[in-house]
Write a structure and sequence with these properties.
Blueprint: H1 2-43, E1 47-60, E2 90-100, E3 107-127, E4 133-136, E5 144-147, E6 154-175, E7 186-209, E8 213-221, E9 226-268, E10 272-302, E11 316-317, E12 322-347, E13 350-366, E14 374-390
Antiparallel strand pairs: 1-2, 1-14, 2-3, 3-6, 4-5, 6-7, 7-9, 8-9, 9-10, 10-11, 10-12, 12-13, 13-14
Length: 392
């Protein structure tokens, strides 16, 4: 009986020793892996600096300047002035970002700035080139009467416009990927504050002569030996002119939420790694929208000169000249959404990225002339950047 009890005690001792050995090995492995992880974390840069640029297509619409009445008679042989009044289509944006990632932490704190500006200067003149009027006197065929054109049908449009935009982001984010995209992948959700400022300015001048022509009459003097002698009795035309100057702006700030993810698909960080990057962002900006416009319109009528009265009568004003100014200011809430998709190549603490990015600010600008009309302000296009890690 004592031998049986002793056998059970020995087996129990063996199990306890085996369990203790396994536990010790497991604890040793955990401690070792923790040390390796801490060492790897310590080798990771704490400060990242990103610099880049973007070729942005601008969605900067505004109301077309098209004065009614006198400009309705613009000749159809000329292109409409609205075709030339468009704002700048592209801008080259500059981008910078600083990110701080504390050692052994899933949190990232960042500050980013994007700035761009563009300008355009367009002058388009379309016109006819009429020939002079030539006529010989019937009684003196050697005497040639020549009347040069004092004007011509034309349409002229001058447009100078510029715009600039500034976007600032301050965010705190946490990596919530938990290995979802592999050991080197990340999925960072960030909250913070976004500030945006937009400004545009335009000056438009439109001139036209829609109806110049030689006006003919006929004379008959049988006693002098001629009938139905054709001569120029005038060169009637209108001279129309209109101008617009407009300054518009928006400035707002509000909460923002963004998601940035990255997943490796080839190589490793030590010898070169390729990753797919994507992201999305939303914000709600509370700010002030301003608009200041001034436009003028004037039309003159000119009878022109004749062969008998070469000096034209003074031009007369047609209708009532328009001279109008508007100043508007309003508090607004501007929703903002955006996204990006791209590829990156990383070698240790150096990374090169390129892709496509878009940002849409809904109803940000008052693009109206005589009354308020809201328009979106959009930026979208390819981007490229380099990122350097410091403090590893």
């Amino acid at each position: 009986m004592s031998e049986l009890v002793q056998g059970h005690d020995n087996r129990a001792n063996i199990r306890r020793k085996l369990l203790a050995s396994v536990s010790a090995l497991a604890l040793t492995a955990i401690i070792s892996s923790a040390k390796v992880a801490r060492a790897e974390d310590a080798s990771q840069p704490q400060l990242w600096i990103e610099l880049g640029g973007q070729l942005s297509r601008l969605g900067d619409s505004q109301e077309v300047f098209s004065p009614e009445g006198i400009f309705d008679s613009r000749p159809t042989i000329f292109s409409p002035s609205q075709k030339f009044e468009k704002s700048p289509a592209h801008s080259i944006d500059e981008y910078g970002k600083i990110s701080l990632q504390p050692t052994a932490s899933d949190w990232t704190f960042s500050a980013a700035v994007r700035y761009g500006r563009s300008a355009s200067n367009r002058h388009v003149r379309q016109q006819t080139n009429p020939d002079p009027f030539h006529k010989y006197f019937p009684t003196t065929p050697t005497q040639l009467v020549t009347i040069p054109p004092v004007a011509a049908k034309f349409a002229e449009t001058k447009v100078r416009s510029s715009e600039d935009h500034l976007v600032l982001d301050f965010q705190a984010g946490k990596d919530v990927g938990l290995g979802l995209f592999g050991r080197e992948g990340s999925s960072i959700v960030s909250v913070g504050v976004r500030f945006a400022q937009f400004h545009s300015q335009s000056n438009i001048s439109i001139k036209s002569d829609p109806d110049w022509h030689f006006h003919y009459n006929y004379l008959s003097y049988p006693s002098a030996g001629f009938t139905n002698f054709k001569f120029v009795s005038g060169q009637r035309y209108h001279s129309n002119w209109a101008s617009l100057s407009a300054t518009r702006s928006f400035r707002g700030v509000g909460p923002s939420l963004s998601w940035a993810a990255s997943a490796p698909f080839s190589g490793n960080q030590q010898s070169g790694e390729l990753t797919i990057d994507w992201g999305a962002n939303v914000a709600l900006l509370f700010g002030r929208q301003k608009s200041r416009t001034h436009h003028q319109t004037t039309a003159h009528y000119q009878t022109g000169g004749t062969v008998f009265h070469p000096d034209p009568r003074p031009a007369t004003i047609v209708g009532t000249p328009v001279n109008t100014s508007h100043t508007r200011s309003r508090n607004v809430i501007v929703p903002n959404v955006g996204g990006s998709f791209g590829l990156s190549w990383r070698l240790q603490d150096f990374k090169v990225s390129m892709g496509y990015r878009a940002d849409f600010f809904f109803g940000a600008m008052d693009g109206g002339i005589d009354s308020r009309k809201t328009y979106d302000r959009d930026f979208y296009g390819p981007y490229a950047s380099i990122t350097i890690g410091l403090g590893g």
